[in-house]
UniProtKB/TrEMBL annotation:
UniProt keyword Aminoacyl-tRNA synthetase present: no
Signal sequence annotation: 1-23
GO molecular function: transmembrane transporter activity
UniProt name for this protein: ABC transporter substrate-binding protein
InterPro entries associated with the record: ABC_Gly_betaine_transp_sub-bd
Gene Ontology cellular-component terms listed: ATP-binding cassette (ABC) transporter complex
Pfam families xref list: OpuAC
Tagged with keyword Signal: yes
Keywords assigned by UniProt, alphabetized: Signal
Superkingdom as given in the UniProt entry: Bacteria
Boundaries of every ABC-type glycine betaine transport system substrate-binding domain copy: 28-310
C-alpha cells in the first residue's frame, strides 16, 4: 500500500513538474495586435489559445505592418505578428528568415488577401454564363448605374485608395465605356459598402471592386469574377497601378501573401506552441463570417475571437492536440 501511495504521489509530482515546465518553456509572449479587424481577431485567438492551452503569459501590443516588421527584425519585439501582409516586406523578410532572425509560420489566410471585381451570388446563380469580367460587361442591363439605369455601372474603389487607380485603368483597358458602362465614384468606404447593401436589399445587380477578408463579404454572398489573364507583376507595377497610365492592359489583381511571423526567441522559449503556430490557418469565408458577426453585434476583437472559438471548432481544434483543445474549450 505504501509503495502504491508513493507511486501515486511520484506520478502526481512528475505531472505537476511537466505542466510547470511547459508553462516556463512558453513564458512571457508579446503579440502584435494590428490595427485592422481580421488581424485583431487573430491576435486575440492566439492570446486565448496560448494562455489557456499552453500556459503562456501573453501581452498584446499595438502594431501595423511596417513598424511591427521593422521592430521584430531589428529588436526581436514583439514575439509574434499573427497576420503580416508580407508582400510589402518580402525582400527584407526573406533575408531575416535566411539569417534566422525571423520564422515564417502558417499562411494564416489560406487563400491570401484577395482583390477583384465581384457580383452578387444571386446574379451569378441566375446567370451561370457570367464567369468572367468580360462576360459581365456583355450584360450592362444586369448592373444598372444608380443615376442612369440605361447604362451599366462598375463601382470603383474608395477615393484616395491605391485600388482606385488600378480599377480606373482596368476600366479603360477593358473598354468598359464602349460596352455601355460607367465608372461610379463611391466616395468613402461607407459609400461602397452602402451600394452593395442597397443592391442586396433591392435584389438588383451590382458589379465592382471589393476585397477579402471583410465583414461585407461575410454578410453578403458575392462571387469573384476572373479577368481571364494571370497577374502580370511587371505590367502592374509599370502601368496597372500607375495613375493615368496611357495604355493599360487587362490584368488581374495581385493576391497578397499573409503569414504569421515569429521571432527566433519565440520559437525557442515557446517551442511547445510552434506546432500550433505552424498549423493555424483559415479561409476567407470563415473570417468573413466572423467579421460580419463582429460588425452586426458591435463586438470587440476579443468578443469575435471567442465567437470564433465557440462556433468554428471544426476549424481550430485540428490546430492543436486533444489535451490543448479541451483546455481551450473549458476557458471559453
Amino acid at each position: 500500500m505504501r509503495r502504491l501511495l508513493a507511486f501515486i504521489f511520484l506520478a502526481a509530482g512528475v505531472s505537476a513538474v511537466a505542466a510547470s515546465a511547459e508553462a516556463q518553456e512558453c513564458g512571457q509572449v508579446s503579440i502584435a495586435e494590428m490595427n485592422w479587424a481580421s488581424a485583431g481577431i487573430a491576435a486575440h485567438v492566439d492570446k486565448i489559445i496560448l494562455e489557456n492551452g499552453y500556459g503562456c503569459t501573453v501581452t498584446l501590443v499595438a502594431g501595423d505592418t511596417m513598424p511591427t516588421f521593422a521592430s521584430m527584425n531589428e529588436k526581436a519585439e514583439p514575439d509574434m505578428a499573427p497576420e503580416l501582409w508580407v508582400n510589402s516586406v518580402r525582400t527584407a523578410l526573406n533575408a531575416a528568415v535566411k539569417d534566422g532572425r525571423l520564422i515564417e509560420a502558417a499562411r494564416i489566410l489560406s487563400e491570401g488577401g484577395v482583390e477583384g471585381w465581384w457580383i452578387p451570388k444571386f446574379i451569378a446563380d441566375a446567370h451561370p454564363e457570367i464567369r468572367t469580367v468580360r462576360d459581365a460587361l456583355s450584360r450592362p442591363d444586369l448592373f444598372p448605374a444608380p443615376d442612369n439605369p440605361s447604362r451599366g455601372a462598375i463601382h470603383n474603389c474608395p477615393a484616395g485608395w491605391n485600388c482606385q487607380i488600378s480599377t480606373a485603368n482596368l476600366f479603360r483597358a477593358l473598354e468598359a465605356q464602349k460596352a455601355g458602362f460607367e465608372l461610379v465614384d463611391t466616395g468613402a468606404a461607407a459609400g461602397l459598402d452602402g451600394s452593395i447593401a442597397e443592391a442586396f436589399e433591392n435584389k438588383t445587380g451590382w458589379l465592382g471592386y471589393y476585397w477579402a477578408p471583410t465583414a461585407i463579404l461575410g454578410k453578403y454572398e458575392m462571387t469573384l469574377l476572373s479577368f481571364g489573364v494571370d497577374h502580370d507583376r511587371a505590367e502592374w507595377d509599370s502601368c496597372s497601378a500607375v495613375p493615368d497610365c496611357p495604355a493599360p492592359k487587362v490584368n488581374s489583381y495581385p493576391v497578397s501573401d499573409v503569414y504569421t511571423v515569429v521571432t527566433r526567441s519565440f520559437a525557442q522559449k515557446a517551442a511547445v506552441a510552434m506546432d500550433y503556430v505552424n498549423a493555424r490557418s483559415w479561409d476567407n469565408a470563415t473570417i468573413n463570417k466572423v467579421l460580419a458577426w463582429m460588425d452586426q453585434n458591435q463586438g470587440t476583437s476579443e468578443d469575435a475571437a471567442r465567437y470564433f472559438l465557440s462556433n468554428f471548432q471544426s476549424t481550430w481544434v485540428p490546430w492543436v492536440s486533444p489535451a490543448v483543445a479541451e483546455k481551450v474549450k473549458a476557458a471559453i
